[in-house]
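Can't attach files on this board, so I'm pasting raw text. These are the components:
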Amino acid sequence: MVRHKFHPALLGICALLVTLPVLAHHSFQAEFDANKAVTLKGTISKIDWINPHIYFYLDVKDDDGKVTNWTLESIPTGFMHRAGLTRDDFNIGDNIAVLAYRAKDGTRAFAWLQELTFANGRKVAFGANRPVARPEDPPSK
Amino acid sequence: MNSRFFGQRAAIAACGVLCLFAMRAGAQVDRATVTHGPAAAAEIKAAAAKPTPRASDGHPDLTGYWDFPQPPVSEHTKDGVIYATPFLPGQNAVGQIQGDPNPPPYKPELLAKVKELAKNQTHADPAYHCKPLGVPRVGPPRQVVQTPKLIIFFYQVDIGEGDQSGIGVRLIPTDGRPHRKDVDPMYFGDSVGHWEGETLVVDVNHLTDDTWLGISGYFHSSALHVVERYTRKGNTLTYEATVEDPQVLTKPWIMPPQTVRLEDGMVVEQPPCEERDEQHLVNDDHHTRDY
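---
Top answer:
Structure tokens for the assembled complex are below.
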């Protein structure tokens, strides 16, 4: 095996193009639509703390009092740990506000969890490279 | 097309030229650098300059917790917002990763199959569906316990693909025993190790064909045979693997090396892995870095 020394910057730049270790399960764009944001306020009803994605379930009450249980897909548990968050940071019954992106396949009440704000104002953003839009897009009834 | 998008494209083109240059020189880019950039390379270099601890038998002591350098968590809390992502805002790499400068040398008649599998990765890759990454794709162990005649590797796969429930364990006897004959083909296979100077050399066979060598459709047969080399230098551990599979490759493939750094940690049990996305995918896009 022939090896040469390279300037560190060259290594870093080349790093963008070589095969990366598996860092991601699937493409965001293959499943969710960044143009279909939805803001929700509700109560965490269930958490599936699993890989490759954590799932939060959120009971959201509309203006007529009807409750829809949303499924919100999130990041892997390891990524959560690296951000200093564990399962104990989330509780069933927590009232939260979220910004989410709907599934492209039309599955109702299923979306990617982009931002989560706890009742005390603590905010967590999941996946930092997408625009943080705040359109008024109420959940469908 | 905004200026930022154009800038990204220009950067990609520049990278391509530079990478072609590197490829012509036969460069092997260490995966630690690939993952975390020049800052990680500097951290690896500093760690490698430390003394190399030795076991009572004089061999380098691989015992410890090893990981790729990670961006500090504190940088994830800018503006009072916790960014629960390994990538900082505005610093994400380009999405689709293409142009592997060091692909396995597949037989010409199999290249079309590799290409098709790569396109179909979200359906065809065993690791996508929570199967273990296996040897050699799993890379270096996260933690090692070394004794004179038995070395134990622990794996904590928590990267969003090939995630493994619980803790992965490999036992590497170094007492001169031969390979077992009473085992089934498995993801970690059967390993026997010996020391060659400063390097632990591990011969692995009995590997299942239910793994890939890499995410880009790199399938293999059950004839897979891997020779791994683990070299501790200071507080770094470099993983190298030579892959032989005469059924699909024209010659042995040398994977890009991966160097991890000694850290103060301990593996933790991972939750179950359960794939639920395939049914919702609307196209074949895959392995971007934005989840």
